[in-house]
Request: fold
Amino acid sequence: MSRIFLPGFALHSAMYSRLDAAQDASCIDIIPAQSWGATIENISDSIETGSIAIGYSLGGRVALGAALLHPDKFSGLILISAHAGLTDTQSEQRRIRDEIRAQEVLGNREEMLKKFDTNELFDPLDANERSVLESSRIPDNQILADQLRILGLGSMPHYEERLSELRIPVLYITGVRDVRYCSLAMRYKKQTPFSHHRVVDAAHRVPFATPRILSLYIEWFANNVL
Reply:
């Protein structure tokens, strides 16, 4: 049973380098196509039938979209600090914000990422976590801008109303200090038929803060739930 890891915004596969559960697994870096739907199709084409998709933040949103589009390809989903989409009114406001960030990253990448890293969702990083984060950044500024414009939270469909369609086991993982996403995951779990929710000692950046615990939960899900 293949494990497919999907990284978060502005990150590539190295973000999972400290996870034992990711050793010898596949990782698909998220390169935007012309639209959200086209990107989901491209990602889905790269996934073997019967795979477990494990996605963090943007990667979780993409994994959810792929599972809803091609449900027969997946045996399970692990969604880490992932959002299921905004309402139409919220999406319009978020698209404006994402476009501003896209322009900022093209104009001054370092300043934009510095502002991004001070988001209230994130805990301060220790030296090891900072090293992994910096070595995991996608170097191409245009890809980062396209991730914001094409794959930002304002551009994805509102999948929350479709969670009941999932007929595979789903594990939601959130950090205890990420209050907003903990609340969302609890709400999503009620709407997802075969689901679990686990909370770890972290804020939003769970793979960086608690790689060992995250690996244990991935192994538990793969070996005992599926």
The mean pLDDT is 95.
